[in-house]
Queue: 4 jobs
Job 1
Amino acid sequence: MFRGGTRPQLHPEDAALDRMRAEVWCFEATQGGGGVREDAWVQRAEGGSVMPKYIILMNLTEQGVKAIKDAPARIAAAEKTLEAAGGKLLGFYATMGPYDYVAIAEGPSDEVAMLQLIGLAMGGTVRTTTLKAFALDEFSAILSKLP
């Protein structure tokens, strides 16, 4: 059961998909089915995020370089696909150095992230290296479990 016996309010920006997901997670959490833990609900209610974050390092393929003028449209389409899957593009940067692009995204699960990355690779314009990222508060919580 949640603190006070009621489910905390979700962020308004999370919209209908998050509400639908919340109902499933609420049921799983109260039934012990491995859904979002109570402390995750509390974290969400206090303004935190429970979705994993990813840093995606990208290099253009030869095909991507040849079609570079279409890149903004492809990026916008990829963002819409990510949002439809329950994720969010937090930042996107064209960079100088060993990578052509760097993106920061969040998604509802590693499985959803993997599907999105495979779909991106199937487009043939970029190759990706993905890092799962932990915010400082998440990292601190992990470290607090050390003996």
Job 2
Amino acid sequence: MTERKLTANKGIDWDRVEGLGERSDYAIAARMGVAPSLVQRQRKLRGIPAYARPPLQASDSIDWTNRFWSKVHPEALSGCWLWHGSVNKDGYGTAGGRGARTTAHRLALAWAIGPLPPGMVVRHKCDVPACVNPDHLLLGTHADNMKDCVDRGRKPRGEACSYSKLTDAQRAEARRRALAGEAIPDLAREYGVSHSTLRVVGLPRRKRDQSGPNHWRAKRRAAETAITAALRLDRSAHEAEQREWMEIMGTKERDDDR
């Protein structure tokens, strides 16, 4: 680690480096081919304050708005406004500036209705991730978004899930056999899955007879009864010893008085 730092610092005249405090440390590090932490350390050693972004001007906001909407192309048939800029792995457009990025459909709705309330998500009525048409967007909670996902069939179920361990046919067969009385542990061993996997696919949970002698509540009651009886016996024996001792002491006192 020390050798790499010395190698990165070798041959660099930091007194003649331009831009310390006037450009971001990451921009200087990328131009010089060194780590940003090295630029930050040299800036602090020389007492140069950190780079501060200039305040946002009205012209900057207009330019950014023009750049944003230049990447939107309306579709005549569906009415969607499709985002043709960068997208994330889920197909949602991404946009931003000044070191911050967010999804394009959130920015489009904020442009239409104003700042979005904290903790709220933006849902699509059209189920098109790349759509940024404010008329196709609405606010909601995360629970509302998940409900939309299930109601519209966008959440895979059964063997359509990539992590599914049982096919739909195996799931139906396991459920039929469980309802017929077969033990779930035996079914789990046969299908090569855990008990919890069969619970997840909807197999009925067998209710145990809580009144039987092998139920844990019955065993606890029996243990409590036995312990209580033992304590009562110990108490009776202790009281008998006390009475016997009192009788002996009383007899001895009477003999002494005589």
Job 3
Amino acid sequence: MDKNTLTKEEIESLHELFNFYDKSGTGTIPTSDVRNILKGSRFAVEGNALKRLVSAADPKDCGAVTFPQLLSGLQLLHPAEGGPREELLSAFRLFDKQNTGLVDVAELIGIMAKIKGELGVGEDEIAQLVREADFDRDGKIDYQEFVRTLFEIEQLS
């Protein structure tokens, strides 16, 4: 196993800690709690690394993150060698036909709806998740929003 890959046990442990800090039960925690959740794990970070992780997990600077966003931030900060990050980036580039770093929401919904059977998720759920991923409501999704959406779809299936 790659040293940067989270094990099932580590994910479960991080999720338990996340739920502990999610005192209101909304499925989000303040970004200020990310350091506390990671403290004691092999992914504990400080200083600039912590800032990069929080920025990756919360690119719109909302001040809160969901668990899939936290995992996405960890993946972007600690990519598996030759693994999913390269695959996700390649997949994103397939959708990013103009090479702008953005994917059209409607186009992404259409493509994902065509492969919904492989995803194990319904078309309505896909459309809702993709629309929610477009935080700034500009009709476009950037790479970090794309990765976060795929993590959320994976958790639904």
Job 4
Amino acid sequence: MLTATARPARRSAVPDTARVPVNRQITITLASPSMTLPSAHPVSATDWAQDWYLLVIGAVAFGAATAGVVHRRRHRPGDTGHIAGMGIAYTAMLTAFYVDNGPHLPLWDRLPALTFWFLPSVIAAPVIARAIIRASRSRLSRGPS
């Protein structure tokens, strides 16, 4: 590790023309949660009484991802809003997957139904909190920009 920090930084092996522009990265990042809402609507409409929650979870994922991207695009200070928004969106998509498919997965079919609803959040909440705390500490150590 010390040798890696002692060496001068090398130029990236990827040419500048092959790199994806930041605006395109944001568009790609938002595309996944954006597609959950339009795809959740017809899926939940086919059997509304049983699958209405997919539309709600899709709306939560879309709203959280949009909030995270807007925070980043407006160049607000800190990364808290971006980390929280994207983390919540990912957690919501995982929750929708496990609630819908968990009873049909091997080993997962032995778990109680409430596990599919709460396990992704129980695991993700400390991870998101740790990421926010680390981002805040690194921002404080860099000083005001």
